[in-house]
Sequence to fold (139 residues):
Amino acid sequence: MERTFAIIKPDAVARRHAGRILERIENAGFQIRAMRLMRLTQAEAAGFYAVHRERPFFTGLVEFMSSGPLVALVLEAPDAIKKWRTLMGATDPAKADPGTIRKEFASSIGENATHGSDAPETAAFEIGYFFSGMELVDK
Fold:
């Protein structure tokens, strides 16, 4: 079993898609091991996306991710990182495969409904950024 970190982003929460996305997550066979509805401050969003600090999209990303509530999740399944990224689809919803979350719920590259860790090391950092060990639920 592997764990990954996921976010249902502010655009999807604002458009009332969180419940349908959670249903898709569970129907795909993931176990939800932690979940929190929260709103990031700009400082928290900047810390989370610090790896992108020098990128031209950083300021807009921080503003977007702190613009409203989001749902932070820890998902568990065999090969969870790859499985979640496949279920999400391409970052650009116009290029996402039919049936993926981003194809169905995202409106643009910037407002693309979900986030997912891209590697085990990233997942470990991201899970630790949002959840303490006491908040992770095992069977």
